[in-house]
Amino acid sequence: MAKKNFHTTIKVNASTEEAMKKIGQVNKWWAKKVKGKTEKLNDKFTVDFGETYVDFTISELVPNKKVVWKVTDCNLNWIKNKKEWNDTEVAFILSEKKSATQIDFTHIGLVPSAECYEDCEVGWTEHVTLSLVKFINEGIGMPQ
C-alpha cells in the first residue's frame, strides 16, 4: 500500500486570485509570528511558534493555480525527530468551481508513519479547514 500524504480539500467563496493572495498572508490564518516574504517564487519565510519553527522557501508558483512551500529547516519541539518536516512540501492547488474556489491542500511527506502525523493532522485540519476558510470568506482567521 502506498504512503498517503496528508490531504484535505476546502471550498471558499472567493476568486482564485483572492484565495491565492490570502494563502500568502500566513500571519492572518496560521501563525501570528511570520518572518520573511510569502508571495513570490523563491521567497523565504519562517513560521514561528516559539520553540517550534518551520523555515520555508516558495519552490513553485503558478499564479492563481498553485503554490508550493518547501521546508528547508524546522524544529518540531514536541517530538523526538525534531527535523521530521525537513524536505517535505506544503502544496495548495486552486481551481474554479462555479462561483467558488476549491483548494486542494497536501503536505507532501507527512504520511501516517510519521512521528508527528496524528498531531499534525489535527493541526493542519484546524488551520486549513477552519482558520484559512474563515480568513478567505470573512477576512478574519484564527492564527496561533
Q: What would you note in describing this structure?
A:
This protein has 144 residues and is of the alpha+beta class. The protein has 2 helices and 7 strands. A 7-stranded antiparallel beta sheet has the order 1-7-6-5-4-3-2, with helices on one face. The chain starts with 5 loop residues before the first strand and ends in a 6-residue tail after the last helix.
Brief description of this entry?
By secondary structure, the protein is of the alpha+beta class. 21% of the residues lie in helices and 39% in strands.
H/E topology pattern: EHEEEEEEH
- N-C termini distance: 35 Å
Identify the overall geometry: globular
Write down the Rg.
14 Å
Structural class: alpha+beta
> What does the average pLDDT come to?
95
Q: Strands, helices and their partners?
A:
Layout (H helix, E strand, L loop, with lengths): L5 E7 L3 H8 L9 E4 L7 E6 L2 E11 L3 E10 L13 E9 L2 E9 L8 H22 L6
